[in-house]
């Protein structure tokens, strides 16, 4: 889920570290020790840019506001900032069957600490498997001081940082994961993020909207509850995030609007939502690459909107950028390492 555009070049996500290490070995037939840091860094940049293009699903082109304004068919759904209020009844939980069995007693009763624990253990589960697989390879940088010293500084820093993280969380997370069926563990992560988001944690809300973690199996009793909770809360989380100028929410929501099937489609995001979020992110992009990528997405969404829609949505995006986002650019931290990386 992760990471989205050009900022990955400056703040490499750990998922990209995995891809880089594997790519270096399978394509070059050489270990990292055989490559100097300059060539690794160049390859990192190339892979990061390629990953951004793949995530967008299209070749980026420079598209300005004028090109994005192409009248077409009227979209039926209301834009996300006009979403109807959620009923004031009790918060929708994924399912009453999701309890926090297996969580340490010190965090089980505290929603904020529960979310932190669940998020950290989701990250632990992901990277522990990868690091254990790599540990058998003598050319793995963490097995070779020479290879580690020759690695690009950013890559070396991420490898060491993740290794320390795994050591720090090994005992608590392994106990939970070993004692908890995987579908229940997946459901607990989403339930913890939902409850933290309902209490105002914007990063938890963004990760929930992004659907950043492995989901319960569709045949499990937890999946239907997750779908119900996502449909009930995702648009409201996005609306709240726009009101306070949350870039993580904008990027998570924009990714959700691009999904064609699965959990994120249950929120009912429309072409208007996609256009608004793309135009807002376009204004918040720190360079021409981001502007062109988001501009291209806005142009695609514009095909399903009328000229009146585009005028209103452009004004709304500009107002949000100036007033709620205070002309701040998309931060690196909001794009990378927010949920599982």
Automatic annotation (TrEMBL):
<protein>
    <recommendedName>
        <fullName>Sel1 repeat family protein</fullName>
    </recommendedName>
</protein>
<keyword id="KW-0472">Membrane</keyword>
<feature type="transmembrane region" description="Helical">
    <location>
        <begin position="40"/>
        <end position="57"/>
    </location>
</feature>
<keyword id="KW-1133">Transmembrane helix</keyword>
<keyword id="KW-0812">Transmembrane</keyword>
């Amino acid at each position: 889920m992760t990471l989205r555009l050009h900022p990955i070049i400056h703040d490499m996500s750990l998922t990209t570290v995995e891809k880089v290490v594997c790519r270096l070995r399978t394509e070059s037939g050489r270990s990292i020790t055989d490559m100097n840091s300059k060539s690794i860094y160049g390859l990192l940049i190339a892979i990061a840019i390629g990953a951004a293009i793949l995530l967008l699903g299209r070749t980026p082109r420079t598209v300005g506001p004028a090109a994005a304004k192409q009248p077409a068919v009227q979209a039926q759904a209301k834009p996300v900032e006009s979403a109807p209020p959620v009923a004031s009844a009790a918060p929708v939980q994924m399912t009453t069957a999701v309890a926090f069995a297996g969580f340490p007693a010190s965090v089980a009763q505290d929603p904020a600490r529960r979310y932190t624990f669940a998020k950290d253990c989701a990250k632990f589960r992901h990277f522990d498997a990868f690091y254990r697989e790599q540990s058998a390879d003598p050319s793995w940088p963490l097995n070779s001081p020479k290879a580690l010293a020759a690695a690009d500084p950013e890559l070396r820093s991420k490898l060491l940082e993740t290794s320390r993280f795994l050591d720090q969380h090994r005992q608590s997370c392994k106990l939970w994961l070993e004692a908890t069926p995987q579908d229940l563990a997946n459901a607990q992560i989403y339930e913890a993020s939902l409850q933290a988001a309902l209490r105002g944690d914007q990063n938890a809300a963004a990760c929930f909207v992004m659907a950043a973690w492995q989901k319960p199996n569709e045949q499990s009793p937890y999946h239907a509850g997750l779908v119900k909770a996502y449909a009930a809360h995702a648009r409201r989380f996005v609306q709240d995030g726009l009101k306070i100028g949350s870039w993580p929410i904008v990027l998570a929501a924009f990714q959700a609007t691009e999904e064609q099937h699965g959990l994120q489609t249950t929120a009912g995001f429309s072409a208007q939502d996609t256009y608004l979020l793309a135009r807002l992110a376009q204004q918040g992009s720190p360079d021409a690459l981001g502007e062109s990528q988001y501009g291209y997405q806005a142009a695609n969404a514009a095909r399903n909107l009328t000229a009146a829609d585009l005028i209103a949505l452009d004004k709304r995006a500009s107002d949000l950028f100036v007033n709620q986002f205070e002309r701040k650019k998309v931060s690196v931290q909001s794009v990378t390492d927010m949920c599982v990386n």
